[in-house]
C-alpha cells in the first residue's frame, strides 16, 4: 500500500537485497511484515531485529535523526526506546537512509493489553517528564529537530482551516466539525506558551506505546523527535481512555491553558489526518475520527 506520490514501495525482496548488500550475515534470517504507518514500513528480522524503511525522502531524514539521537537519549531514559544497530545507506533501488533496530517485545496499548488505565497514564507522564528534562546536549530547534508541533498554534491556522473544511465534505454530519472549529479558534486566543524548549517525542499515540504485563514497557517511533514547547506532546492523550488522560494530567500538573492548547493540537492532528489520508489509509482515518470524537465527548462533559 503506497500513501505518497513520491513513495518507493518496500517489500521483502527489496529488504533482502539491502541486507545482502550491507549486512549479509542477516540476509537469510526469517523476515515478516511488522506493521506500517504513514511514514515507515517495518519488517521483523529473525527473533531479535526490526528493519525500518521510510516511505519518502522526508521520512528518510527522520530515520537519520533517530540514528543520531536515540543512542544519546536512551541512557537518560528509564523506559525502553528503540536501539539502532545498523544505519542503512541509500542504494539505487532504495535512495533513502534506513535502519535496523533491536526488536522490542510488547503489544500496542489498548483495552486488551492495559490492566489499569490510571496507572498507565501515570507511567506515560513519568516518561514524558523524564524526556522533557533531558539535557539538550547542544541541540537546537533547527533543521530536523524543528517541527510544527513544537511551535505555536497560530502559524498552523491556514492548513487546519482547510482540513476542517475537508472534514465537512468527507465525514459530514457524522462529526461535529463546527464544535471542533470553535474549540480550535478559541485556543488561538490563548496566551502563547513560554519557557524553554525541551525534547519532544512528538507522536505518543497508542501504536507507539508498547505494553508488557499490563504496564507501559517501551516508547517507539522517534521519527517526530524535535525540540520545542511541550503543549503538542500532550495531544495524543485523547487517544487514550479518560482514566488515563486524567491521571496523566494530574501527574504532569498541567494548567487549564496548557491543556486547552494541547487539545487544539489534538484537533489539528486529527482533522489533518482525515484530510490527508481519507482515500488511502482508512485505518489511520478511523484513529483520527476516534480521537476527535473523544475530544467532543470530553468537551461536552465540561
TrEMBL record:
<feature type="domain" description="Aminoglycoside phosphotransferase">
    <location>
        <begin position="32"/>
        <end position="265"/>
    </location>
</feature>
<keyword id="KW-0808">Transferase</keyword>
<dbReference type="Pfam" id="PF01636">
    <property type="entry name" value="APH"/>
</dbReference>
<dbReference type="GO" id="GO:0016740">
    <property type="term" value="F:transferase activity"/>
</dbReference>
<dbReference type="InterPro" id="IPR051678">
    <property type="entry name" value="AGP_Transferase"/>
</dbReference>
<dbReference type="InterPro" id="IPR011009">
    <property type="entry name" value="Kinase-like_dom_sf"/>
</dbReference>
<protein>
    <submittedName>
        <fullName>Phosphotransferase</fullName>
    </submittedName>
</protein>
<dbReference type="InterPro" id="IPR002575">
    <property type="entry name" value="Aminoglycoside_PTrfase"/>
</dbReference>
Amino acid at each position: 500500500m503506497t500513501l505518497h506520490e513520491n513513495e518507493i514501495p518496500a517489500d521483502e525482496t527489496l529488504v533482502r537485497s539491502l541486507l545482502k548488500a550491507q549486512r549479509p550475515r542477516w540476509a537469510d534470517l526469517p523476515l515478516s511484515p511488522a506493521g506500517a504507518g504513514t511514514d515507515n514500513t517495518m519488517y521483523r528480522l529473525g527473533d531479535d531485529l526490526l528493519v525500518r524503511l521510510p516511505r519518502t525522502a522526508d521520512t528518510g531524514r527522520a530515520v537519520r535523526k533517530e540514528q543520531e539521537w536515540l543512542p544519546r537519549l536512551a541512557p537518560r531514559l528509564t523506559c525502553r526506546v528503540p536501539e539502532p544497530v545498523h544505519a542503512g545507506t541509500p542504494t539505487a533501488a532504495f535512495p533513502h537512509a534506513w535502519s535496523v533496530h533491536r526488536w522490542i517485545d510488547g503489544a500496542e496499548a489498548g483495552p486488551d493489553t492495559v490492566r489499569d488505565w490510571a496507572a498507565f497514564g501515570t507511567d506515560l507522564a513519568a516518561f514524558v517528564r523524564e524526556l522533557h528534562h533531558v539535557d539538550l546536549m547542544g541541540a537546537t530547534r533547527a533543521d530536523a529537530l524543528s517541527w510544527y508541533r513544537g511551535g505555536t498554534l497560530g502559524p498552523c491556522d491556514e492548513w487546519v482551516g482547510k482540513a476542517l473544511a475537508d472534514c465537512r465534505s468527507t465525514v459530514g454530519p457524522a462529526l461535529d466539525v463546527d464544535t471542533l472549529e470553535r474549540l480550535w479558534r478559541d485556543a488561538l486566543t490563548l496566551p502563547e506558551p513560554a519557557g524553554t524548549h525541551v525534547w519532544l517525542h512528538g507522536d505518543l499515540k497508542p501504536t507507539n506505546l508498547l505494553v508488557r504485563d499490563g504496564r507501559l514497557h517501551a516508547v517507539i517511533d522517534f521519527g517526530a523527535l524535535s525540540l520545542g514547547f511541550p503543549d503538542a506532546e500532550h495531544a495524543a492523550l485523547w487517544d487514550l481512555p479518560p482514566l488515563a488522560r486524567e491521571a496523566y494530567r494530574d501527574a504532569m500538573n498541567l494548567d487549564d491553558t496548557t491543556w486547552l492548547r494541547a487539545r487544539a493540537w489534538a484537533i489539528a492532528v486529527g482533522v489533518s489526518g482525515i484530510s490527508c489520508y481519507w482515500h488511502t489509509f482508512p485505518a489511520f482515518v478511523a484513529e483520527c475520527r476516534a480521537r476527535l470524537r473523544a475530544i467532543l465527548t470530553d468537551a461536552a462533559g465540561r
